[in-house]
Amino acid sequence: MRRIVNRGAVASLILSRVIYAINWYNIAAVFTFIAADLHQNVSGLGVLTASFYGGLGLFQVPGGILAAKYGAKNTATYGTMIASVASFLTAFCSGFDQLVLLRFIVGIGMALFFGPGITLVAKAFREGSQGIGVGAFNGAYYGGGALGLFAWSVLAESIGWRASLGTSGAIGILGGLLLLVYLPRDEVRKGFTVKASDLKRVLSSRWLLALSLELFGVGSGSVLINTFMVYYLEQSLKLKPISAGVIGSLSPFCAVFASPLCGALYDRTKRARLLLFFLGLGLAFGVGIVSFGSVYSAVGSTLLAGASSGAFTVAYLAARDFSRKWPEYETLAVNYVNSVQMLAGFWSPVVFSMIAVSYGYGVSWLGAAAYTFVLISIILLAKDEGQRFNLDNHQKKGATSLQPSH
Predict the structure, then answer these.
(1) How far out from the chain centre does Cα 200 lie?
(2) Any idea which architecture 7-184+194-388 has in CATH?
(3) pTM of the model
(4) CA distance readout (Å), 309 to 141, 261, 306, 370, 401
(5) Distance separating alpha carbons of residues 148 and 143, to the nearest angstrom
(6) SS3 for 404?
(7) Helix (H, G, I), strand (E, B) or coil at 52
(8) Which of these, 125, 156, 220, lies nearest to 22 by C-alpha position?
(9) Composition of the chain by helix, strand, coil, percent to 5
(10) Is 125 left (phi over 0), alpha (psi -120 to 50) or beta?
(11) Neighbours of 242 (CB within 10 A)
(12) Are 205 and 404 in contact (CB under 8 A)?
């Protein structure tokens, strides 16, 4: 507890991250009910997932810009409320098109919360322990994901899938109110303006691009396991919804512990490239073994995917370190890295579902594994992760641009 500077902020952020994850994952837990009620197959569910990830990916960078201009607290709080209200309204949708639109809006709100949440939770921990803080924040996401997959499978059977999604939305609104109360007031530097030249240098950073591509590979593999594993087990291996939900929840449950552990490793070593490569390699193997078509291979896959999820924590910390001396752009750097991998969530489910319909799940899982491996290997070609913005010279000269130091 001595590592924490602001306990109220940490508690509200962790709780909001859990609720955020519930509203993210619980849709996968009710796929079977949605497909039956709205007359959809795996292709329709792929479109639904793509819509959600489209909102997440397209609004990451705008979210970072809003945080720089108006503050992390304001951006995170409004994002939480947008996502929660949209999730609540899914209880009243009467058609599949409405559900697709609402999930796109949920994605927008979550994009606005994510980066500011990373920035705020890091600041709530003391120097040297911020990796643990960000890891705990990401671990809370996976804990909420496990709860969303398992509990909402049961809840949907009890009260229906619409009411179950509406319930999680209502809980999310409560989380937004807690952020409003417990997060410290934003301290936006007087006279600060977001400059196009600064944005260009952040968004054109080769190191941030390498981190983005790494997470694109990790996201391509992990989104398939976290989104389709429960449905795959129910439809292909004929497991009951509760059993499939338990197996599907193993991935986020394992990630609860992997995220802070990887954060602590990064704090101690700062070896982002090697950590990211080996974590990505484990994920690629995990995706591939699902093609064996057994319950045991599915369990092994979800465990490996959960352990590999620490790659997200490492990448976010590396992105934040790259620009931490320029605090207004910390959130933008993190959101930029996250935005590219969110686009993996946009297209990956669609392509996966199309291949599964045409050639079967075995080919889909193997193809996803090969593609994941190629993408995660790109990080080995990246420049040293010790790059930083040379803001000392920048501030002394009064320049308006950001220059990388080597």
Answers:
(1) 24
(2) Up-down Bundle (1.20)
(3) 0.78
(4) 11, 11, 5, 18, 34
(5) 9
(6) strand
(7) helix
(8) 156
(9) 85, 0, 15
(10) beta
(11) 11
(12) yes
Which candidate, 334, 329, 275, places its Cα nearest to that of 118?
Answer: 334
Give 251's contacts (C-beta < 8 A, 6+ positions apart). 142, 145, 146, 222, 225, 226, 229, 302, 303, 305, 306, 309
Residue spans per domain, the chain: 7-184+194-388
Helix/strand/coil for 6: coil
- Tens-digit pLDDT profile for the chain (406 aa)? 677 888 899 999 999 999 999 999 898 888 888 888 888 887 788 888 889 988 988 899 999 889 888 889 999 999 999 999 999 999 998 889 999 999 999 999 999 999 999 999 988 988 878 889 999 999 998 888 888 878 888 898 899 999 999 999 999 999 999 999 999 887 766 666 777 777 887 888 888 889 988 998 898 888 888 778 888 898 888 888 788 878 887 887 888 899 999 999 998 888 889 999 999 999 999 999 999 989 999 999 999 999 998 999 999 999 888 876 666 788 888 888 888 777 666 677 778 888 888 888 889 999 989 989 998 998 988 775 444 443 343 444 444 444 333 3
DSSP string, 80-104: HHHHHHHHHHGGG--SHHHHHHHHH
- Residue found under tokens 């590592």: 3
